[in-house]
Amino acid sequence: MTCPGTPAIMPRFPRGLLSVANSSQARKRARQAEERRQRNASARSRMRTTVKKTKQAVLAGDKALAATLFKAAEPVIDAAIGKGLIHKNTAARTKSRLNASIRSLD
Question: In this structure, are residues 14 and 47 in contact, taking their beta carbons and an 8 Å threshold?
Fold first, then answer.
């Protein structure tokens, strides 16, 4: 239920166009948060892409390519731990499952 004269659905603003920060410190923190969000999104995407390419190589049955891609994916996954994007146990589980799927190819 809405008040008379107000839209039923509030308009959604793209990130960065509308800042609700009132103080200079809050504006700076909002700016830093946006920069970090974009940096984290890029690193997370890079990690997911390397894992996905490795999985595709495993599904294709190409053990040599999968092993090469896994060697490239390992440091990317480890970097995601250091940046706080994923938990160390999540990374260990991901690497373990990828490695097990590669070893199962014969």
Answer: no
